[in-house]
Structure formats: structure tokens, C-alpha cells
Write a structure and sequence with these properties.
mainly alpha, two-stranded antiparallel sheet
Length: about 300
Amino acid sequence: MPPVNWLSRLTDLKPYGAKHGKAPHKPLFLLVTLELAERGELPADRLWLTPELAFRFNSFWQVVAYRRTQPPDVRMPFHHLGTQKFWSPFTESGERSPHRTTTRYIEFDPGFAAALGDPAFRQQARRILIAKHFEPAERNALYHLVGMPVPDDDETALDAAFEAPEDAEKAGREGRFRLDVVSAYNYTCALTGYRVTTLESGGIVDAAHIHQFAKSGNNDPQNGLALCKNAHWLFDAGLWSIDDDYRVLVAVDHFSEESPDQKPLRQYHGQQLRLPKDQRIWPHPNHLHWHRKHRFVGR
């Protein structure tokens, strides 16, 4: 099938209608698929249902969460887009899957897989999905989330309100920051090495800002760390920080703690931080210096 025919299919996804607007599951998951293809992380033929995939879908979902009462469920579009021939759903044993609860992987239609490999197709596909299936302010957020400028012919996105236009932009930029940081750290806490992922919630770690976002306005991945909930709170409270050699500094004289069943914070002092394989995403020394100067209580 020529790429133009796949683009035509993207305009008619037949989403389930609801009182809060048409369900956004299918177009959001297709945006996730396009992003994986753009980053070179999409398998050529078979895509498995994983917690990491759920994390990406949930991050995109935050753009529409304000108008949806139910939690996101990646299994719905993962299975049901098969009815429109983008791919075929299969069970763990390799049989055609009859229901989203039994779908474990999908196999792409060869024509769609080829189209996903075309940068021009991906760009146009994102434009169509965003413009066709989302409210104006949601479009604004999604353009920022996928790293595209707001098109001149979609000026309504600039004038619309999430609560206000800047909130829509903020939602998109925060989603991009979360996706870039957490995936770079392989969904693992940079301090503790703790990693838990689920299909329902994605993962336990947050994308934490090093230089406080309220003061820096900086959503660059080099201003981020993937941290589990406890480590994030302790970092924001200034009870630990990071030196320029990426070793952990702990304000050992500034708190009391008991941790009979886990490693106490004090024992992380001097430990090497767990960093991404890609050094371009390692925390920037300027951000580390800011945190040590303005947040770390042990300075």
C-alpha cells in the first residue's frame, strides 16, 4: 500500500465515542509508534507489549488526562489497531489474539512497516494525527511533546486553553522531559539502582530536575535524573547531591534515619552515580553546581 493510503487511514481511526470526547488511545499509541521509529527503536516486524512501552504511552496520555476519568490502558490500542490492519495481534503462543487481554505482541503490516521507515511519512503522519484527533490545546502540547513546531495552519492551537495556552505547552515539554530522562536511565533509579515497571503504571522512577525548574525553566535532559520516589524527595530536600565526578554526596550530619530492610542513605556517600550509556545525557556540571550551592544542606 502506498504511503499516501496509510496517511488516509490515520484520518479515520474510528475511536470509541464518549461523553468526554472521542477516546484518544489509538492516535496516542500511533504517535508512540512513530516516535520509536524516529529514534530507531522500533523492531522491523514484531513489537512486544512491555512495561517500557506502557511508560511511553502513559507519558503521552498526560496530555489528555484532564478530560479522561479512566486510567490509561496501553493494551486497548495495542490490540484494537489490528482491526484497521496497521498490524496483527498475537498471543504469547503465536496464535491470533481475540482480545486485548491476550495480546502479547503485534506484527506490522509490511507496507506500514516500510512507511514507518520513511522520515517524510513520519513527519506528515504526526501532523495528521495531532490535527485530526485532538482538541486545540492538546495539539499545542503534543507538538511540543514530539518536538515539532506548531504549524502556521493550526493557529487555533496557539489561542486555545488547556487552562491557559502556556499550560498546554508545559504539558508537552514536561512529557518530553520525562520520556527522554527516564528512558535514558533505563527506567532505573540513578541513586539506588531500583527498577520496577508495570503495564499499568509504567515505572517507579520520576524524571527529577537538578536545577529547580521553577527557577531555571530548563527541561533539557542534562538537567534531569531518573530517581525513585524516596530518592527524588531526598534530592529535592538537599540531603544528597552529586560532585563533578558524578559521585554521591550525602549530608550525613543533617538527618536521622532508620532503614532496617534497605540500604540507608548514608551508605551511598561516595558511590558512583548510575549514569546513562549516552554521555550526551549525563547531568551537566553547571546544574550539579547549582544543586550543591542552592539545595545541598551539607555544603
